[in-house]
From TrEMBL:
It comes from mine drainage metagenome. InterPro entries: Transposase_11 (IPR002559). This is Transposase IS4-like domain-containing protein. Residues 47-163 form the Transposase IS4-like domain. GO terms for biological process: DNA transposition.
């Protein structure tokens, strides 16, 4: 899982030699069955450059792993550190480059460092999805605390939705009042 970038971890990652780092190889999200399409021209980049906004661009991602013992633990854990090389640009000029570190702590010895980072990112995506479904629409949130009560609540919600849809279908659409009845039907269905 992800771990805060504390100063002692950053020092450990910086003190390792440059030859210890290797470039992160990202796994492709999907295979392209046909030929790759040409990317459209990025108009926004021209506007940002022209107006001289400050831009952060990621140049490289490097990975290193080392052992680390958290404060109150009795054993060492494996830490995978991801170092992102970010260049800060304004207009056409590059102001400076900086490193940002992301740490992942694990006790998995069989996985490679790239696989650890990939697993952590997939888990974060799943946690984001769950939080959006629970707090945003609240479609998957049942307000009661037992399985049978949740089942009854979802059954009532499904029946209410079906009744609302049937009411919308019962609204007559006569030619004389077609516009008004069409709006009423749309309002009931949404």
């Amino acid at each position: 899982f992800g771990f805060d970038a504390r100063s002692n971890l950053i020092k450990a990652a910086e003190s390792a030699g440059e030859e210890m780092y290797h470039e992160l190889v990202r796994r492709a999200e999907r295979q392209i069955a046909t030929k790759a399409r040409t990317r459209p021209y990025k108009v926004k980049d021209d506007i940002v450059r022209e107006r001289k906004y400050k831009v952060l661009r990621q140049k490289a991602e490097d990975v290193i792993e080392f052992s680390y013992r958290p404060g109150n633990c009795k054993r060492d854990y494996r830490v995978v550190a991801l170092r992102k090389n970010i260049s800060v640009e304004r207009g056409e000029s590059v102001l400076f480059s900086e490193y940002r570190y992301f740490f992942y702590i694990t006790n998995e010895a069989e996985m490679t460092a790239d696989e650890v980072i990939d697993q952590a990112r997939q888990r974060c995506n799943q946690e984001n999805l769950i939080s959006q479904l629970k707090s945003g629409v609240r479609a998957l949130h049942a307000p009661v605390n037992t399985l049978n009560a949740n089942w009854a609540y979802m059954t009532m919600a499904a029946l209410a939705w079906s009744l609302k849809a049937w009411c919308a279908l019962l609204v007559p659409v006569s030619p004389r009042w077609a516009k008004r009845h069409g709006e009423q039907r749309r309002r009931l269905l949404t």
